[in-house]
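Figure S7 source data.
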Amino acid sequence: MSGGAEFDAIVVGSGAGGGVVAGELAQCGLRVLLLEAGRHLKADDFRRWEVKANHDLFAPTRFAPLAGGDVIAFLGGRCVGGTTTINTKVALRAHEEDIAKWHAATGLTNDEGEAFSRADLDPYYDRVEKLLGVRERSDWGPCVHTVQAGFRALGAELEPVMSYTDPNCMNYGSCLQGCPTGAGKSTMNTYIAWAQERAGLELRTQAQVERVLVEPRGGRLHAAGVEYIDAAGERHQVRARVVVAAAGALATPPLLRRSGLAHPAIGRHIGLHPARLVYGLFDTPQDSHRVYPISAHCMKFQRDADGGFVLEASTVMDPVAFATTIRDADGPLWGDRLVEALRGYRRFAGVLAMVNDDNHASIAIDADGAERIAVDLQPPELARIDAAQRFARDALAAAGARRIYHTGLFSTHTQGGCRMGDDPARAVVDRNGESHEVRGLFVADASLVPRTMSVNPSLTVMALATRIAEHLALRLEQPAHA
Ligand SMILES: Cc1cc2nc3c(=O)[nH]c(=O)nc-3n(C[C@H](O)[C@H](O)[C@H](O)COP(=O)(O)OP(=O)(O)OC[C@H]3O[C@@H](n4cnc5c(N)ncnc54)[C@H](O)[C@@H]3O)c2cc1C
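Tokens for the predicted flavin-adenine dinucleotide complex:
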């Protein structure tokens, strides 16, 4: 190893991006340290105890103000496996049109210098899908069939999703509290577990990375390691040949800023994939809380030209989140109206409406050191958000719902903030994920994504991470998938 480095690579964050990079590099025989801010909990620890799971597995919810006085909430995991431990595991490849937007945004090309396209990601999608055992979920619960009738009445169709859940899935519906059977594949119970067992991956948990160590070498800046704080509050410095930042779209940009990076695009062009749940109250029990939460979707409006939104069915939030976010045209429910709605909990079916946005959010650190998220949704984005909600409401009404409610907007698919691209003026990192500013500093998480995708992003984040790991393995002079 060079320069007194203890590791070949340090990976910060163990979610969709970091878990894959750490696992792939360790399996190549490289010395890898994976640092994760959260705890290492496993299937045995997972109980459907909503508030405790929020505490143990989620990052504290953050909010950003919206024009007009409302807010948008940001949700994500903080545990080994990151958000893949608590997500719903829908596994979709990005649409060709999604990826075409990337070249336009940052000049991103492939290794041949051509505009980056879906074909450049397909081999990496293949590998991730094979390793995670991605399969179709056509085992719909009755609530999906209820909603399907409404979609059909409006000339649309629900189809089965692909997902990284194996056949041991018992349809408990508790994906967001961690999968108690292990059927849900996170990076925790796949890449990381395999690499710990077979390849000696070193994992340190409750390790909050404060900054990347950056040093001048030969007239350029180089990443030399990281500084982190452990659970006891002790500070540690660890050195490595390369550092991979994979702390997620809302954490990697501030990490780079705290490390002294000055690129103006860090923390900008963040995409939200803004979403809301629309709920229909039916006469008969739907039990939408006791199914695999997202087994169906409607892709008819996926492309911007067709509306720019995707609808997923059928799900309801668990009771605490349900009670604290439900609203109607008059605003959040309270008192008797809230009690009345909650009495009908078993009779709700929900449609998740997710919208293509144009990356008008940002995260910055203010003069007091606090992180501030700003969101500036533009009229075309607001029109898509309204259209998605309207369609979901009409579909539920056509399916026979007596009353319709909804939640506010939230972002579970936050993307961008360290966009990848060939143009150093518009992109923070290059096509291999390496910083244009600091050599040996890589980004390999959702913050890479130059423009919001129309589909759930984790499979693409994992495919991008696999591609970056392949590059890194070659760079560190080891075969990629030995
Ligand atoms: C409720 C929910 C449901 C979802 N469902 C789906 C779905 O069905 N399909 C899909 O494709 N996507 C889904 N997603 C989104 C998907 O899981 C994320 O897009 C993806 O996991 C992002 O990967 P990432 O590597 O960027 O970040 P994450 O997976 O969030 O991982 C980041 C990790 O970095 C750690 N970290 C942060 N800061 C530090 C630090 N300073 N030091 C050390 N560690 C740090 C965090 O604790 C976290 O573990 C869902 C998200 C949510 C919230």
